[in-house]
Amino acid sequence: MSFPVMLFAAGFGTRMKHLTADRPKPMVEVAGKPLIDHALGLAQEITPPTIVANLHYRPEQLLDHLTPLGVQTIIESPLILETGGGLRNAMPLLGDGPVITMNTDAVWRGQNPLRLLLDAWDPERMDALLMGVEPARALEHTGSGDFTMSPNGQLARGVGVIYGGVQIIKTELLAEIEEEAFSLNLVWDRMLAKGTMHGLSYPGRWCDVGHPDGVTTAENLLASDV
Fold it and tell me: What percent of the chain is predicted at pLDDT more than 90?
């Protein structure tokens, strides 16, 4: 079992400062290859039916890089649509079923988080299944966590696990949002109210590569034995 994969690659990368002056954030190099290739490699390992990336800032570089790799792309213009609007805009390429979404500004060290999500996915109980990271396993992340997680994996807002940027999500609720550009948080809120949003705790380590210091930390993580 696998699902289409949506790579979020449209952001401006303002936290990356000088590194994104001439390139989109997903093209910043980490350990000798563009950041987006680390996410793409994880996606390719689960053999999804399709991989789609949304583009906005300096899209031509990502188009040139991703098209030969078989990734379908969709350019958001003139507005950037955020995660929710971007996912809804890509639905003609992704289909109507559940989708795996991935942020492209993180590096994972350990088991493939997408495979772990697929193995735990239960569509009878879940509208979304998010990969969480315990703060002790997270590098270069300054927040205090996004969700609390009950013993059965049910999520609630609060200080606890960090959302690692990878999830399986059903897409029907996207149609209920009136705004053109919106965060997936609006969809999550509806799922949280229904008790259908769940999480897993990642057993490996994870690094936020959203700012320049994260590049070196991620490279050290990838070179480590743990």
Answer: 91
Q: Which two tokens stand for residue 95?
A: 């289909």
Contact 223, 32 (CB under 8 A): no
Determine the Cα–Cα distance for residues 96 and 49; give it in Å rounded to an integer: 13
Query: What CATH number has the domain bearing residue 70?
Result: 3.90.550.10
Q: Is 84 helix (H, G, I), strand (E, B) or coil?
A: helix
CA dihedral over 206, 212, 215, 221, signed as positive or negative: negative
* DSSP bridge pairs for 101: 6, 167
Rg value, the chain, Cα: 16
For residue range 47-92, what is the model confidence (pLDDT) as tens digits? 999 999 999 999 999 999 999 999 999 999 999 999 999 999 999 9
Domain that holds residue 31: 5-223
Residues 26 and 223: their CA atoms lie apart, in Å, by 20
Sign of the dihedral defined by the CA atoms of residues 101, 107, 108, 112, in that order: positive
Number of domains within the chain: 1
**Model pTM greater than 0.85?**
yes
